[in-house]
Amino acid sequence: MTRESEPAVAPAGTAGNSEADWRRDDLRPTWDLYRRMAKQSENPALREAVLWALNLLESLMGQDWLERYFDKAGQVPAEVNLGAGHVGATGNLLDLALRYHVLTGVPGVGKVKREMRTDLRDERRWHSTLQLEVGALAAMAEFTVALEAASPASAKPSDVALRRDGQELRVETFAVLQDDRAREAAAYWDRFSLHTIRISGEFNVGISGDTGQRLGRDDYDELLRLIRSAAEQVAATGQRQPIDHAGAQLVILPPGEADYQLTGPIEESQGWPRVQSKLIQKAEQAAKAGGGWLRANIWDGMWQFTPWARIGLHAKIEELTRLTISALGQVSGIDGAVLSNGAGFTLGEFHGESARTTGGCYAIRRVLPARRVRETMIIPVTPLGRGQAATWLRMYDTEADWLDWALSSAGLPTRHQIFGEH
User: Fold this and answer.
1) Taking the CB of the first residue and of the last residue of the chain, which one, N or C, has fewer CB atoms within 10 A?
2) Contacts of 324 (CB under 8 A, 6+ apart)
3) Measured torsion, CA atoms of residues 387, 389, 392, 393, in degrees rounded to the nearest 10
């Protein structure tokens, strides 16, 4: 028995650059649009999981959420927009839906859902997503979880409260967002990554090397033309093809060569001063809600576009420990901070690594499902915090196992069936 295939569907917004393109009925960002995209997958496990996630999020956020989000923010959340076709975005989409699933019935999850549904800003979505992340990892570690949890000592709520065996961790979650220069650099890198991923997938080749500095439109278009032409040659001959254009030095690799890495331009961000200011602000806010820990994703470019980003993991934690303890020493009641660059998509090979300071601070790099990687820095600043740091270490050290645990709880295929990963 056969059926006609669905017409080809591209992510919303890819048909053109003007807002008018979005006004066409078939390109408005609806849940049905993304379900049609998901149904094009030849992998039945991926198709099942993505459709489940889209259906769950629609039931939580509402039928018109994607359109309202675009009208407000000018874009569709990337985990939805690319979730059916980009492996990293698929991982993020499943994470978001599964976190809501495993936290069903948890006190405060309804408030987090309402805020994400009504406050249509990226900042709100990222904040809510981080609350869900901490709560969901803690649920696998058998903590009792509460979100937006009031403290006995304060009427102000903590973003997350974790309890187990008489131990309580109160957590303030937030993201430090990019400055303008880092935002421009990240947008360039995202665009280049998307274009090269498409070429790599079309011809089943690897793309390795250094992209050089950001290019103007003409040089950028020519570089993409050269990459596509070289990829076509490699697919036909099985021989590597070098590319040297406008400062970019790349090599197109034949199928089967997995040891490759694509690097982009290094552009300085404002770095620590912006992070420190946000840490102190959030520490003061957390102190009013009973204190505890800060959990932050640092997305301002510090993790990508500063000299600190290019040093080894042990040197990173030593330097970040010194700066964080100095900043949080200005606020009483804070036991420590867990700082991360978030679960980012990898281009090339990454391996797990760990480092520990003499003061009981930890740095870990862990490879996650769906070709993602995360670095996490755990920095206690009080004696109580030093006793609790190992709890954070266990939660994030086992993060790679969380997706299979959550998929099983939802009755979905395994990550190996979805992504081909073990």
Assistant:
1) N
2) 279, 337, 339, 379, 381
3) -110
